[in-house]
Amino acid sequence: MQQSYAAVLCVLAVLGLEAAAPGECELTRLLQDKLQYEMRLQYMKHYFPINYTVQVQYEEVLRPSNITRLRNGTVSEAALRYLWFHVSSQAVLRIREVLPEKHPSWKYTQELCRLFDALGKEYSEYRQTDVEAVVADLVKLVHSAGAESRRKPVRPKALLDNCLKVMRMLYGAPC
């Protein structure tokens, strides 16, 4: 079993594709289960006021079109997954910031944060200097506190919709 796994990794390395680690795959499967449409609809739309928005930085909205553009710019898959992790975990934190502890969505966002924390341990070996400059710059912008003027209103459900779509793009083939 281990020999066949090693052989697959070697083939992927030869092809220039970067396989996701088994821990990443398992955590993204758990995230995908938590991000089912019904749950996103209930916790991020029905439990919020009509047309409620969260203020996020422009860089905190990662759409599939952004990933396609970066892929065409020859950014590696590992760097794209690293970017997705930082943007998505920051988006969940932004949503959580506006929720009081007794809000019906509090436990749901807490579970999402727990899964992103576990995924963060998988990415703890990455450093911003290990990824392409464009990705490192975007991650810095996502985590910068001084970008208050570069904010836009986004619905909480839209943030999680984008999170799921991009996750499927990045983890569909390797997992």
Automatic annotation (TrEMBL):
Q: Which UniProt keywords apply?
A: Signal
Might you report a single GO cellular component term? extracellular space
- Give the matching InterPro entries: IL-34, IL-34_sf
- Indicate yes or no for the key word Signal: yes
Keyword Signal listed: yes
Q: Which GO terms describe its biological process?
A: positive regulation of cell population proliferation; positive regulation of macrophage differentiation; positive regulation of monocyte differentiation
| Signal peptide extent | 1-25
Domain of life where this protein originates: Eukaryota
GO MF annotation list: macrophage colony-stimulating factor receptor binding
Give the protein name, as stated in the record. Answer: IL34 protein
Species name: Ciccaba nigrolineata
Q: Which gene encodes it?
A: Il34
